[in-house]
Design brief:
The protein has about 290 residues and is an alpha/beta fold. It has 12 helices and 10 strands.
Amino acid sequence: MSRILVPVDFSAQSIQAVRFATAYARDKHELTILHVIQPFPSRHVVNKLGRQSVEKIQLDEAKEDVKPLIEIVEKAGVAYHLEIVFGNPHEEIAKYATDEYIAVVMGTHGYGRMTGYLKQSVSYPTIHDAKIPVFLISEETDASHFPWRNVLLTVDGSDQAMAAANTALQLSEGMDVSFTLLTVVTPPVAYTGMYGVGWEDTATLENWGRETLRPYEELLEERMIPYASKVLIGDPATLIRETAQEKEASLIALGHHGLGGIAGTLVGSVTFKTIHRAQTPLLIVKS
């Protein structure tokens, strides 16, 4: 039986992530519920009470706080293993997120790129460090659609996008799922009287988009999987969210180019922009 890693805190986002993971895991996968306790911040308290005493208090509190999450898993009848460890959350998650697991499922607050960095979002460094696919689940997701029925495959011609498409297909095996391929062409910056190299109108951009889609269409056709295709022109993150709402997608799959928090912020990573306020579960894959 394959395993899914589910890092949790005690937030509404983690509750939704556990619900998503149990809906997907039924009769197929075992869950590892991972909670990371951060070291107690006050050295004076630690020195006075002793590290072992402080950690015992923290561990007892964590076991009590994690009970509502475990009840969800047990009610669903899904096999699980509980791990509670001490350390930095994203570093400990990265240690576990190896190929022993098929995916990570975790909650996200949906912070913007800079806010997420400043507030030390755990999901951003996990995406960067994890060697396996990561599902991100927000509090606003509709649990009645878990795990997923309609997948929006967002592609851009990269190796990462092809890896995301292959992963989404693999994880959807045995499920009744429909697929929509989406590529968004960002227009080159054009000044008055000048055009970007190689294009003169939107028809050219649409042709670029159709060429981008073709390898992914062939992938689906080889596997005899029905699909719809869509080419849009504009800002990728905005149009991905709008298309997901229009198509009533219950999962968005996209490739990640591996940029960290600062680099992703500076270059405008589509992944980080899509995470921001996303209400649809995300599957993020690096090649």
